[in-house]
Amino acid sequence: MSPVHAPHTHEKRLFVLDTNVLMHDPTALFRFQEHDIFLPMVVLEELDRGKKGVSEVARNVRQVSRFLDDLISAAGEDSIRAGVEIATDFLRLNNGKGPTGKLLFQTETLNGQLPTNLPGDSPDNSILSVALSLQSKFPERDVILVSKDINLRIKATIVGLKAEDYFNDQVLDDADLLPTGFHELPADFWDGHSKEMKSWQEQGHTFYKLVGPMTDDWLPGHFLAMPGDSPFEAIVREKSPDHAVIETIRDFTETRHAVWGITARNREQNFALNLLMDPEIDIVTLLGAAGTGKTLLTLAAGLAQLLDEQLYKEIIMTRVTVPVGEDIGFLPGTEEEKMTPWMGALMDNLEVLTQPANGGKWGRTATDEFLMSKIKVKSLNFMRGRTFLNRYIIIDEAQNLTPKQMKTLITRAGPGTKVVCLGNIAQIDTPYLTETSSGLTYVVDRFKGWPHGGHVTLQRGERSRLADYASDHL
Fold it and tell me: If one looks up domain 262-473 in CATH, what number appears?
């Protein structure tokens, strides 16, 4: 191991923060526990340039500025050169463990010797220069550059600096640790769990109270499945340390249980429809690749409960407007007209759901107009401050939202409202978001085990044999 990368365990580490870390998470200032944080002057300049506007990034920048102002005001200007103690008023941000390090600002010129193959005075190179100077100034300390920019981390490693990604925003260490929403039971399950079993019926539903070793891993809202000639499928309703209460689910694969003409084509779709059609479940998250039926099942369940059961007043659909290719520029019209190009998935699935047996072209047109009057397409930009009562809210492409944006949307729900989050964490288009830091991952992890929430990962594509083959081989 080279001297530059040798660990110094006897000293607190010194983290040099890149601008994008603070733009991504304003509370990053309080996430480094006992270690010190250094902010180069170029970072403050970039924050100043990014403070204008109503975007999420601009709001984050303004919040960082408020945090810095509060810290400096509390410490006094005289302590800036020695380092500002990071206030302990933010204990709640670190699960009760308050930061005890110092916040250091660049108060003098720091010019580290950059290699000649890094010419120019770009902000990234300025940050590298400052970090190299700190490394020379404090040889006894670990100086680590923290950035969400992969290229900057690569350049830092090349010039002999330690560089890390910002990991504190990650919900999980690995996306594979996300729950699938169901457990597959072994064939001998009943042998070890039927001795103290109790069963009863309430309002046409069959319940079982079970005791056994496998119940330890179950959570409310998770499904149980035992494949075989007579498959058994149930949902966990209650979980305590010594027992679990499960309820058998409705079989939506049967035509007589079709939802707005749609039947489940596989086990996971059946689980999803049970969650979507259950009025006791307030939030549903559906993960899955393209073609697994997320949007179709969600719309079918929403229309059935809106028009047949009249549980909701209307369906509200929204999604983040992140283009896959080049942006096509400004769009004319009202809020709904501007959102129309982003709602192709809605229109495609409505075509499947609005095919009347009789009536021909005029019947289809009348049906489409009637349904569109019940389905509102909203932009994320105008959600803050609103409250939705008795609405069925669909958040499409939720993997492109940050945890903060997801919190803003879900907290819009008033009494009688159901929220459905759809997405594929393998297709993230938002910069600096990953599978482990996506807002959708955040919601799945935080709501697991809540009796009024449910999650299912759809695994089998049902679009076409071409789409299935393309998903596997392209």
Answer: 3.40.50.300
